[in-house]
Design goal:
With 506 residues, this protein is of the alpha+beta class. It contains 22 helices and eight strands. The protein has four domains: 4-66, no CATH class; 83-141; 180-323, no CATH class; 334-500, no CATH class. GO terms for molecular function: DNA-binding transcription factor activity, RNA polymerase II-specific.
């Protein structure tokens, strides 16, 4: 039976054979529990959403663990992306991985092999698909044409021909200027740093952006390459902190950042317009994302200005609101839809109700994450009452609604953050809060309104600290700086300092 398409612009596709509902725009299957929020992200509101959900209710949609996977060699599913991966050829295994790095880890952890050549010998390239993403990801192999290998004999002949170049001719060629230090930072970026930086789409998670598309742009533009090297050098400096090499890395990072900022400013101000293929626009987009990463590092540590005495750029400055704006530019696109305020309240109430029910289970049966998340959600559920006791009866109803909405959004984002310790999950949960809070709350924070600062402090102490601890190294120190800012602004109000934020730690 062919798939059934429904929703605006055929947004959804029901695959009866596998019992899944696939979002054709996001290219992955949606769990039943996430249908409402997912439709809201695509701006399917109210009556249209309810009608769509009523129709979907007639379908038999499986939970992720119940979905039957296609047999190896089955034709690909059109609504899902096809990615290159590897299959373990160890007898009786056939495990699938999306990268060779993960295949090596599989051989190490499951088969006890540490030699990477073993992983090469006992794995083969395949084409993969997956219905779900995140913690529910499970790959299956699909049918594809074998790529014809080059003739080994021909390859040998070509190699042998190359070796016929005379030593005398080789000596007459000019020497190659190879900057080993630059190559080291470039290699570190492509193999390590790029894997830690946030992606904005699911396709970027699968195919990569920082170590593929951006690299292609940077190889054609020195200023963009300097931005990549600045991030890489700073990352190495943080990793080698206290070894004696960190200062040299940070100095190199600052020099590269200086050259990047000059080139980026020139690209933004250029009047030449876009190239026919749009590559200049792509380069500017890449520059913007590098600028945001460097801006986060600068905001938290003052790193670049301190080392080279550089004047801060218009956006890399000591401004909390500027920092929050840079984070939003790095956010995944599916976290950028704020949603209606009543939706936020309803979802927060559901999460807190679920937490109350789960708290009835014996403490010894709860995992560390469950226990920690439960304690945090309990604190957030009590926060409005504690704020009323500290501040008294509020004068502005609009301020109250904005603050309650921000707390409800924080409940949602905390629940999302604790679903996984993955770097991307914790980063997107942290940033999505910025997109969920109403604009009036941002205005309150800009005016250093005490209620807004209290909620902001909880966001920093909970979500930002968790993102820092789960691999988002470019945020390191940010949570501490925000808490210090809040405590300084509230220093004269001991009720806030002692009763609401005094025990928060980053």
């Amino acid at each position: 039976m062919p798939p059934i398409r429904l929703g605006p612009n055929d947004l959804l596709e029901y695959d009866e054979a596998h019992g899944v509902l696939i979002c054709r725009e996001c290219c992955y299957a949606i769990q039943k529990s996430a249908l409402q929020s997912h439709l809201l992200r695509h701006k399917v509101y109210r009556e249209e959403r309810q009608n769509l959900l009523a129709r979907i209710a007639q379908f038999n949609i499986y939970e992720p663990d119940e979905v039957p996977l296609p047999a190896p060699g089955s034709p690909p599913i059109d609504a899902l992306p096809v990615i290159s991966g590897y299959r373990c050829t160890t007898p009786g295994c056939a495990n699938l991985c999306a990268s060779f790095k993960r295949m090596k880890r599989h051989h190490s952890e499951v088969h006890g092999t540490v030699d990477s050549s073993i992983a090469t010998s006992f794995s083969c390239p395949v084409k993969l698909q997956t219905f779900f993403r995140g913690t529910k990801i499970k790959y299956f192999e699909e049918l594809h044409e074998e790529i014809e290998m080059e003739n080994p004999k021909g390859a040998f002949t070509q190699s042998a021909t190359f070796t016929k170049v005379s030593c005398q001719a080789a000596r007459s060629l000019p020497s190659v200027d190879v900057n080993l230090e630059t190559l080291r930072y470039f290699h570190h970026f492509t193999t390590t740093t790029s894997l830690t930086l946030p992606n904005t789409t699911y396709h970027e998670e699968i195919w990569g952006y920082w170590n593929t598309g951006l690299i292609l742009q940077a190889l054609q533009r020195k200023w963009l390459m300097c931005g990549i090297l600045a991030i890489s050098a700073c990352h190495l400096g943080i990793l080698e902190n206290g070894t004696g090499n960190d200062l040299a890395h940070h100095e190199q990072s600052a020099r590269c950042a200086h050259e990047f900022l000059a080139g980026y400013a020139g690209a933004i101000e250029s009047d030449l317009g876009l190239e026919a293929d749009g590559s200049e626009d792509e380069a500017k987009q890449g520059g913007m994302r590098i600028h945001c990463i460097l801006g986060c590092l600068q905001w938290a540590t003052g790193h670049f200005v301190q080392i080279l005495n550089l004047p801060p750029s218009p956006e890399i400055r000591n401004s909390l609101l500027s920092f929050m704006s840079m984070l939003q530019r790095l956010a995944a696109w599916d976290t950028m839809v704020a949603g209606a305020q009543e939706e936020t309240f309803t979802e927060a109430a559901r999460i807190l109700n679920t937490m109350t029910l789960s708290n009835r289970q014996p403490l010894e049966t709860m995992t560390y994450h469950q226990s920690l998340a439960s304690d945090i959600l309990k604190r957030l559920s009590e926060l409005p009452t504690r704020m009323t006791e500290a501040f008294g009866r509020p004068e502005s109803t609009r301020d109250v609604l904005a603050t309650l909405s921000a707390i409800s959004a924080l409940v949602q984002c905390c629940a999302n953050s604790f679903t996984s310790d993955e770097t991307a999950t914790t980063f997107n949960a942290m940033v999505s809060w910025l997109n969920k809070v109403p604009q009036h709350f941002n205005d309150m924070a800009a005016c250093n309104s005490a209620p807004a600062l209290v909620v902001l402090a909880h966001w920093a102490a909970i979500l930002m600290r968790r993102a820092e601890n789960c691999g988002n190294w470019f945020l390191r120190g940010s949570a501490t700086k925000i808490l210090l800012h809040v405590k300084q602004e509230c220093a004269e109000d001991r009720r806030v300092l002692q009763f609401l934020v005094g025990d928060l730690r980053a």
